[in-house]
Amino acid sequence: MTIYSRADLGWRHHFALQCGEITEPDAARLTGIDRDRVSALSPDGPLVLTCPQGLSTGELAVGDWTLFDPDSHRIIRRLEPFSAIKRKAAGREARTQLIAANVDTLGIVTSCNSDFNEARLERYLALASSAGCMPLILLTKADMAEDPDEYRHRATALSPLAVAETLDATDPGELSRLSGWVGTGQTMALVGSSGVGKTTITNGLTGASDLTQDIREDDARGRHTTTARFLKRTVSGGWLIDTPGMRELGLADASDGIAEVFGDIEDLAAACRFNDCSHESEPGCAVKAAIDSGELDPERLKRWDKLKREDRYNSESIAETRARARSLNKLYRGGSARAKEKRRIE
Ligand SMILES: Nc1nc2c(ncn2[C@@H]2O[C@H](COP(=O)(O)OP(=O)(O)OP(=O)(O)O)[C@@H](O)[C@H]2O)c(=O)[nH]1
Ligand SMILES: [Zn+2]
C-alpha cells in the first residue's frame, strides 16, 4: 500500500489555518462519494468515513479535505476548499451541485479540428474563473492538424488568463510537458466534449498502474473491497479528479467568471452613455463604436450576450427556487402552528 504525506495529498497552509491550535489534525482527502459512503485518503492510508448528523454527502465533493475522528471514522467537519467546481443540478429544481473541490487547474480539453469552438472555450474559461481554478486549454490532436499553432493563438486570444498547449495526447513524451501542472500535491480536473482525448490524457498522466488496482480498503463488514476511485494519482506526484459529474458541466452562478473572461467588453459597456445600454442602437454606445472601428469582434459580443443571458436565467431560477422553498416553509410552519393552536383550543 502506498502511503502519502499530507503534502503529497495536496494539504497546504489554507487548510492548516482552519485547524486553529491543532498542529497534527486527523485530516483526510475525499476520493469518492457513493450515496452515504465516503472514501478518503489520509497519511495513514485509505479509509471509509461516515457523515455526522447534519452533514449530507451532497455537501461534500471529491477533492474535499475533512477533519475526522480517528476512532469512529466519523467526519468532524469539512474544511473550506480553495476552489469548488459547481454545476446547475439536473431536474426542474434549480440547485447547484458540487462536482469537485480543491482543484488547482481546470484542464479544458478540445482538439485542433472542428471540435474547437470559441464559445464553448469561453464558457469553460468563465467556469474555471468562478470556481477559482487556473484554466489550461489543452489542444489535442495537434499531430493531425495542418497548423496547430493557429488554434493555440485563437485560444489564447480569448482571455488574458488563457494558457494553451497543443499536443498529441497519445504520445507519452508530449504528455510529460504537462507534469508541471500536476506536480506534488497539485490537482487537475479535465472538461471537454466527448472524443477530444480526456481519457487518453488521464491514462497518460496516471501511467499504466491505475490506482483502482492497487488500493484496497475495508468496507463496513471488514471485508476488503476495491471501489472506483475518482481521485487518481499522476506519475508526477499530483492528482486528477475524474468523476462522472466532471464530464458534463454547464454554467451556474458564473457571473464573476464571465466578467473576468469578457473584461474587455465589460470595460467598454461601462463607458456607454446609458447604464442599461443594450449595445444595439443607443447613442453614445462604446461597444458599438468598438465594433465599428474593428476593435471588437461582433461574434465575441454575441457570445458574451448569450452567456450572460444563460447565466442570468440559471441564477434567476436558483433564486426563484429558493424563494419558493422559503414561502412553502412558511406555509408549513404556519399550518402546523395553526394545528397546534386548534389542538390547544379543543
Ligand atoms: N492522433 C491523436 N489521437 C488522439 C489524440 N487524443 C485522443 N486521440 C484519440 O481520440 C479518440 C478519443 O479519445 P478519448 O481519450 O477516448 O476521448 P474522451 O475525451 O475521453 O472521450 P469521452 O470518453 O467520450 O468523453 C481515441 O481513439 C484516442 O486515441 C491526439 O492528440 N492525437
Ligand atoms: Zn452600449
From TrEMBL:
Name of the molecule in the record = Small ribosomal subunit biogenesis GTPase RsgA
Fetch the InterPro entries from UniProt. Answer: P-loop_NTPase, Ribosome_biogen_GTPase_RsgA, RsgA_GTPase_dom
Compartment(s) where it occurs, according to its Swiss-Prot or TrEMBL record: Cytoplasm
Catalytic class of the enzyme: hydrolase
Query: What are the names of the required cofactors?
Result: Zn(2+)
Please tell me where Zn(2+) binds in this chain.
C272, C277, H279, C285
**How would you summarize the oligomeric state and partners of this protein?**
Monomer. Associates with 30S ribosomal subunit, binds 16S rRNA.
Q: Specify the domain of life of the species encoding this protein.
A: Bacteria
- Species annotation: Pelagovum pacificum
Q: How is the cofactor bound?
A: Binds 1 zinc ion per subunit.
UniProt binding sites for GTP:
T140, K141, A142, D143, G192, S193, S194, G195, V196, G197, K198, T199, T200
NCBIfam families per record: ribosome small subunit-dependent GTPase A (TIGR00157)
State any GO CC term.
cytoplasm
Main subcellular localisation: cytoplasm
The function of this protein is: One of several proteins that assist in the late maturation steps of the functional core of the 30S ribosomal subunit. Helps release RbfA from mature subunits. May play a role in the assembly of ribosomal proteins into the subunit. Circularly permuted GTPase that catalyzes slow GTP hydrolysis, GTPase activity is stimulated by the 30S ribosomal subunit.
Q: Which family does it belong to?
A: Belongs to the TRAFAC class YlqF/YawG GTPase family. RsgA subfamily.
User: What are the record keywords, sorted?
Assistant: Cytoplasm, GTP-binding, Hydrolase, Metal-binding, Nucleotide-binding, Ribosome biogenesis, RNA-binding, rRNA-binding, Zinc
Which SUPFAM superfamilies does the entry link to? P-loop containing nucleoside triphosphate hydrolases
**In the Enzyme Commission scheme, what number(s) does this protein have?**
3.6.1.-
Alphabetized Pfam families for the sequence? RsgA_GTPase (PF03193)
Q: Name one GO biological process term.
A: ribosomal small subunit biogenesis
